[in-house]
Design a protein that fits this description.
The structure is a single chain. By secondary structure, the protein is mostly helical. It contains 13 helices and no strands. Helix 1 packs parallel to helix 3 (about 55-75), helix 4 (about 80-95) crosses helix 12 and helix 11 (about 210-240) runs antiparallel to helix 12. The longest helix has about 35 residues, at about 210-240. It is elongated, with a radius of gyration of 27 Å. The relative contact order is 0.13.
C-alpha cells in the first residue's frame, strides 16, 4: 500500500467525519452520512494497521473512529439491570468457564498444603526452624494464639480487615496473571505454606480437630475464591502464550476484561467468607454447627457457579462485556 496515495484519497472523508462529529445537531441525511463515514473510517483504520502501520496516522484514525462510534451508539449508563445480569449471568459464567483451571489448582494446592502440614508435623527439626519451643507452645496451646486470633479484634473490624486482605490477594492473582502466571504461583504457594504451617503445628500438638474447627467454617469458601482467582490468573497467563484462534491482542482484551470483572464478583464472595470468619468462627456455636455453616456456604457457591454459571455459559455468555459494548471488530487485510 502506498500510504501517501491512500491518505490523499481518503483525507476528505475523514475531515468530513470530523466536521460532523463537532456539530451538536444533525439532520437525518447528515446522521446517515456520519454512520457511513464511520464504517468507512473503521475499515480504513484496519487496512492501515495491517498493511502499512503508521503510528501518527493510526492514532488519529483510532481517535476519530472512537468518537464516531460513541456518537453512533450513544452514551450508556449502568443500571440495576446491569448489576442483576452481572450477578446472575456474567460472573458465574466466567467462573464456570474457568473451572478447568481453578478446580485442578484447588486440588493441587490442597495436596501441597497437606504435604507441607504432614512434613512439618512429623519433623521436629522443621518445627524448631519455625520458632522456639516456647513460642510454638504459645501458638498451639488451648487458648493460644491460633485460637485467640479470630477473636483478637471486634467482629466487624476483624471481618473488614480479613475481607480487604483476601480481596487484595485475589485481585493480585487476577491482575498479575498476565505475567505468564508466575506471580500467581508465588502468591498461591504463600497461602498454602501458611495453611500447611498451621496444620502441621496443631497436628503435632494433638489439636488438629481444633484447628480444622477454626479453619473450615470460613476457609472452604475463602480458599475456593482464592483458587478461582489463581486459576483465572493462570488462564490469563496461558493466553499470552497460546491465544488460540484469536489474535493475541483480542484474546488478552477479552480474557482481561472477564478477569477484572471477576475480581468484583470474588470480592463479594470474600465478603461473605469474611463475615463468617468474623462472626461465626469465633462464636460460641458448637464446632459441628460452625462447620455446617461453612459447608452450606461452599455448596451454595458451587451450585451458583455450576447451575447459573453453566446455564449462562451454554447460552454463550463468556463473562466479557455484551457485544454491543465491545469495540467493533472490523475486517483485516490478508
Amino acid at each position: 500500500m502506498d500510504l501517501d496515495v491512500f491518505v490523499s484519497a481518503h483525507r476528505a472523508e475523514w475531515d468530513r467525519l470530523d466536521t460532523l462529529l463537532r456539530r451538536r445537531r444533525l439532520t437525518g441525511a447528515e446522521a446517515d452520512e456520519l454512520v457511513a463515514l464511520y464504517q468507512r473510517a473503521a475499515t480504513h483504520l484496519s487496512l492501515i494497521q495491517s498493511a502499512a502501520p503508521d503510528p501518527q496516522l493510526t492514532g488519529r484514525l483510532s481517535q476519530l473512529v472512537a468518537r464516531a462510534r460513541s456518537a453512533v451508539t450513544g452514551a450508556r449508563r449502568a443500571s440495576w439491570r446491569d448489576v442483576t445480569r452481572f450477578l446472575t449471568h456474567s460472573f458465574p459464567a466466567a467462573v464456570y468457564r474457568s473451572r478447568h483451571w481453578w478446580v485442578p489448582t484447588a486440588l493441587l494446592s490442597t495436596a501441597v498444603a497437606a504435604l507441607l502440614g504432614w512434613w512439618i508435623g512429623t519433623h521436629p527439626e522443621v518445627q524448631a526452624s519455625i520458632a522456639a519451643p516456647s513460642e510454638l507452645r504459645e501458638l498451639t496451646r488451648p487458648g493460644g494464639q491460633y485460637e485467640t486470633y479470630y477473636s483478637s479484634n471486634p467482629a466487624a473490624s476483624f471481618a473488614a480487615q480479613v475481607w480487604t486482605n483476601n480481596a487484595w490477594a485475589a485481585a493480585l492473582c487476577l491482575i498479575l496473571g498476565v505475567f505468564l502466571g508466575l506471580p500467581v504461583l508465588w502468591i498461591l504457594f504463600q497461602n498454602m505454606l501458611n495453611l500447611g504451617v498451621g496444620f502441621g503445628l496443631m497436628s503435632s500438638a494433638g489439636r488438629l480437630d481444633t484447628f480444622l474447627g477454626l479453619v473450615l467454617p470460613h476457609g472452604l469458601l475463602e480458599l475456593t475464591a482464592v483458587f478461582v482467582a489463581a486459576g483465572t490468573g493462570l488462564r490469563l497467563g496461558w493466553t499470552v502464550i497460546d491465544p488460540g484462534p484469536r489474535t493475541r491482542r483480542t484474546a488478552l482484551a477479552e480474557e482481561g476484561r472477564a478477569a477484572l470483572a471477576m475480581a468484583i464478583g470474588l470480592a463479594l464472595i470474600l465478603f461473605v467468607s469474611g463475615a463468617i470468619e468474623g462472626f461465626v468462627t469465633p462464636s460460641g456455636l458448637p464446632t459441628w454447627a460452625r462447620i455446617t455453616i461453612g459447608v452450606l456456604a461452599e455448596l451454595a457457591f458451587l451450585a451458583y457457579v455450576y447451575v447459573l454459571g453453566g446455564r449462562a455459559a451454554r447460552a454463550g455468555d463468556t463473562g466479557d462485556l455484551e457485544a454491543s459494548e465491545r469495540s467493533a471488530d472490523v475486517p483485516t487485510a490478508a
